[in-house]
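sorry for the late reply, my laptop died twice this morning and i had to redo everyting from scratch. anyway the thing you sent over, i finally got around to it. pasting the sequence first so we're on the same page, its 233 residues, then the predicted structure underneath. double check i copied it right bc i was rushing
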Amino acid sequence: MMTNPRESRMVLLLLLSGVLLLSGCSSGSLLTRRGDPDYAPVYPPGDQPAASASGSIYRADVARPLFEDVKARRVGDLLTVILAEQTDASKTATTGIKKDSTTDISAPTLLGKDVTVAGNPASTSLDSSNAFTGSSDSAQSNKLQGNITVTVSKVLPNGNLAVQGEKWIAINQGEEYVRLRGIVRPLDITSANTVLSTQVANAQISYRGKGATADSNSMGWLTRFFITPLWPF
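ok and here's the structure:
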């Protein structure tokens, strides 16, 4: 049994470090669950509007003109987002630095005579040369196509629609899911009640997988540690 407070603190620190390392290096897909409130469907309000006191069968709060396109405009309405994401980025950097210097030190004199060493003047020269060359190249390309139907979660004061939703697909021993959140302008919604993902403001789109296939393509926590800046070698 350890009685030294310092040893107890060291053991506790090591345990906490191990827990943080394991939790920080865990794959995010393993912690993902269905029914996240940030992407859960939003249903229309359950309370029905009060009947018009005039006795008319027309009610402006729920009426839809006969010749109006059926588009999402209320909380709980459905909207299909066509995923058309594509990004390409590249970066190249080259750096070259070179510096040469030469310094001559003449022989000092003492009482009008040159100071000598073994009969030779005590003069010397210094030469230095430094050079550095570095280059880097980086390229990345991403593409996401498909569609996902989301629900209107909120109608903003300016008429824009906040939407959210997710789609889960189970394939053999794994699951694939797409999640989307953002703000849609009603003018961008087509007559087919669709909108391009490139027209969704503040879009948060994620496409990931879970299961044996996704796990086999993920590095273990120890491998992740060796390729992080924490590894000094």
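Residues 159 and 186 are 7 Å apart (CA to CA).
thats about all i looked at so far, will dig more tmrw
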